[in-house]
Amino acid sequence: MTTDLEELAVRLREFVRSRDWEQFHTPKNLAMALSGEAGELLAEFQWLTPAESQNLDSPTLARVRAELGDVTLYLIRLADVLGVDLVEAAHAKLDENARRYDPERYRGSARKAPPLPS
Amino acid sequence: MTTDLEELAVRLREFVRSRDWEQFHTPKNLAMALSGEAGELLAEFQWLTPAESQNLDSPTLARVRAELGDVTLYLIRLADVLGVDLVEAAHAKLDENARRYDPERYRGSARKAPPLPS
Amino acid sequence: MTTDLEELAVRLREFVRSRDWEQFHTPKNLAMALSGEAGELLAEFQWLTPAESQNLDSPTLARVRAELGDVTLYLIRLADVLGVDLVEAAHAKLDENARRYDPERYRGSARKAPPLPS
Amino acid sequence: MTTDLEELAVRLREFVRSRDWEQFHTPKNLAMALSGEAGELLAEFQWLTPAESQNLDSPTLARVRAELGDVTLYLIRLADVLGVDLVEAAHAKLDENARRYDPERYRGSARKAPPLPS
């Protein structure tokens, strides 16, 4: 894991340990928390047009930034508990997508296939 | 953003640009994709006991790792499009949580307050 | 609960009982499954424009209908396990929203407040 | 659609129309709102053990009931906008699952296949 992500993972470990919260941080529970926070992020955008979502006003951007922080914390914590390197996992998935979605064939098309799919 | 995250953000920019997919990558759509991938990650854990989620078999761990890769990619892409530094946003949120959840008062308790809450 | 919903709840009880799956259907697990299915529904719309989402092609509508079926099944099952009447809960929430969002004050505005919010 | 669900759908149509909110209620936006509310429901269960989730205290059950109300409202509204009959869609999905998951073969096993899967 990168230095910055590792630093966050270490800080989280200490945060959790000092409150005796390891008992709550099973992978199952952390996956729930991550998904819940992703839902809060989603809610910030639900009534905006696509164009409005590209020009957030200042209070909305501040809330979105805080939700992105929450998602990042739970993602790092879940990966740490599972022993997964997020940067390696992301590169591996992007390698796979690069093979799967030929640039010429999928140019400008989200119909044939979703970008960056699962 | 950290060097490793910045490298992923740059790689994603090129991946998207070479397929002419910028048109699909509005913050609204990316927040949807992130939440959808978090849902796929969640589904891997839904029938497992908490203890089972701490001892994943090898095929499940491989799928979980791939889903973590997807979530990471969309999170980085969304932050990049919005101009948000994920590492800074995560530290800011953890600072806030450290102030909000006194270690003594919240020791061992997820009832009084959820760990790492929104 | 309405006759049709009650009929589905009873059919689900028998489906689950005959497979000895009650052990998996805790409220926690069912809430995860419901959220995961909502994420699959979300994924069907993520790259569509708002206008496209109003004019689904036939294969997409068939997939969306199947996902709506999944969400409905888990919602009914979760409510049944918890002993909650969904129709009463929905009316109670709509009563609350009707009081909270004055028609004149909130006319045409999702900015001041989200429609049907939590 | 059943009488009770139809009654809720009609009540929602009037609620939305009287506030001029039809413009926000595209299927894309409603799928986002549904997923966001499912995430709020999920968050109620994230730190509970499976056993605790089966014995909710009174304030938690009240919040869960309110979230179930929200999910139900958005599900009915989305189906109404799309012209999908939820009860028919649910029965069709349950028919499919009954064929797919032989009671003998899948007895007591969420490993071989998740119950009520997508």
From TrEMBL, chains A, B, C, D:
<dbReference type="Pfam" id="PF12643">
    <property type="entry name" value="MazG-like"/>
</dbReference>
<dbReference type="GO" id="GO:0009143">
    <property type="term" value="P:nucleoside triphosphate catabolic process"/>
</dbReference>
<protein>
    <submittedName>
        <fullName>Nucleotide pyrophosphohydrolase</fullName>
    </submittedName>
</protein>
<keyword id="KW-0378">Hydrolase</keyword>
<dbReference type="GO" id="GO:0047429">
    <property type="term" value="F:nucleoside triphosphate diphosphatase activity"/>
</dbReference>
<dbReference type="InterPro" id="IPR025984">
    <property type="entry name" value="DCTPP"/>
</dbReference>
<dbReference type="InterPro" id="IPR052555">
    <property type="entry name" value="dCTP_Pyrophosphatase"/>
</dbReference>
